[in-house]
């Protein structure tokens, strides 16, 4: 794919890059921690001797948040990330790229079928650790997880914010960061999503979090928002 690339340049976020194609299209990308392998059919791009993976903002809420103006990405080189709702590994694999070999991504997923797919991704990514568990019961995976610099939560539950708070109090370092993907329709289908985003952010504020940003993810994810908050616990 290098013949269709004009340039790849750094963004203001560590290990997150912009790929500019010959036709002027710009996409996010990350350096591939598992060269030669894609995870979800994304394009692999060779540029100046390095392989990058295109990061599809319609497939990853973190990429969508970055495209919509996330001010700071707390996921950086060497960070330890606890990821709730890891699914088959789309976003966790890009986080694996970002944190590199000395970082760690603990991917908690409830579905045994989906975890099997995540395990296949992790086989080529020694910094990604799949965990079959229910995020409502963090004590069940406490022996497997170190204290985290970042808690990433993407679960379709009505009490998703409460689950995030519970896990933060269990694992998140003081001054660590929370990235919470709020799914408005999972919480209340009768309310306006913007009201739900505001209410969930206020819930975090009352629970030892300093909410830095609430980003509506439309058009990448309808009725979703990404909350960036810092834990004061």
Automatic annotation (TrEMBL):
One of its GO terms (biological process) is tRNA processing. InterPro entries: Fibrillarin, Fibrillarin_CS, SAM-dependent_MTases_sf. Its EC number is 2.1.1.-. GO terms for molecular function: histone H2AQ104 methyltransferase activity; RNA binding; rRNA methyltransferase activity. It comes from the Archaea. Keywords: Methyltransferase, RNA-binding, rRNA processing, Transferase, tRNA processing. The keyword Isomerase does not apply. It holds the Pfam family Fibrillarin. S-adenosyl-L-methionine binds at residues 90-91, 109-110, 134-135, 154-157. Interacts with nop5. Component of box C/D small ribonucleoprotein (sRNP) particles that contain rpl7ae, FlpA and nop5, plus a guide RNA. These sRNP particles form homodimers, giving rise to an asymmetric holoenzyme. Involved in pre-rRNA and tRNA processing. Utilizes the methyl donor S-adenosyl-L-methionine to catalyze the site-specific 2'-hydroxyl methylation of ribose moieties in rRNA and tRNA. Site specificity is provided by a guide RNA that base pairs with the substrate. Methylation occurs at a characteristic distance from the sequence involved in base pairing with the guide RNA. Belongs to the methyltransferase superfamily. Fibrillarin family. This is Fibrillarin-like rRNA/tRNA 2'-O-methyltransferase.
């Amino acid at each position: 794919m290098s013949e269709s690339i004009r340039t790849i340049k750094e963004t203001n976020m560590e290990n997150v890059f912009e790929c500019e194609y010959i036709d002027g299209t710009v996409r996010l990308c990350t350096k591939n921690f598992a060269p030669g392998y894609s995870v979800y059919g994304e394009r692999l791009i060779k540029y100046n001797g390095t392989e990058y993976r295109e990061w599809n903002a319609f497939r990853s809420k973190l990429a969508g948040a970055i495209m919509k103006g996330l001010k700071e990405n707390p996921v950086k080189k060497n960070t330890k990330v606890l990821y709730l709702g890891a699914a088959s590994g789309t976003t966790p694999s890009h986080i694996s790229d970002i944190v590199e070999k000395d970082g760690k991504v603990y991917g908690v997923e409830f579905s045994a079928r989906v975890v099997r797919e995540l395990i296949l991704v992790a086989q080529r990514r020694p910094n990604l650790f799949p965990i079959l568990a229910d995020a409502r019961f963090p004590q069940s995976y406490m022996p497997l997880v170190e204290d985290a610099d970042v808690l990433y939560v993407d679960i379709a539950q009505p009490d998703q914010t409460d689950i995030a708070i519970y896990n933060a109090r269990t694992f998140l370092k003081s001054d660590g960061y929370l990235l919470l993907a709020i799914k408005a329709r999972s919480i209340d289908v009768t309310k306006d999503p913007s009201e739900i985003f505001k209410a969930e952010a206020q819930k975090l504020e009352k629970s030892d979090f300093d909410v830095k940003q609430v980003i509506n993810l439309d058009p990448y994810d309808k009725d979703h928002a990404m909350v960036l908050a810092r834990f004061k616990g």
